[in-house]
């Protein structure tokens, strides 16, 4: 199987990725906004 490095923002729900040598399916994705400081 071929592997390639991609940016995090290109990952989609339902796709697979390899993390620490283990294949995993992406079941959900959450993002957060930067918080205010000061």
List the helices and strands and how they pair.
Layout: E1 16-19, E2 22-25
Structural notes for this entry:
This protein has 38 residues and is an all-beta fold. The chain contains no helices and 2 strands. The chain has a two-stranded antiparallel ribbon with strand order 1-2. The model has no long low-confidence stretch (mean pLDDT 87).
Structure, briefly:
By secondary structure, the chain is mainly β. The chain has strands spanning 16-19, 22-25.
Q: Into which percent range does the helicity of residues fall?
A: under 10%
| CA-atom Rg in angstroms | 14 Å
* Percent strand: 15-25%
Structural class by sheet pairing and helices: mainly beta
Give the key terms.
about 40 residues, two-stranded antiparallel sheet, about 20% strand, mainly beta, 2 strands, single chain
């Amino acid at each position: 199987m071929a592997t390639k490095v991609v940016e995090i923002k290109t990952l989609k729900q339902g796709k697979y990725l390899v993390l620490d040598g283990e294949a995993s399916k992406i079941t959900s994705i959450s993002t957060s906004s930067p918080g205010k400081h000061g």
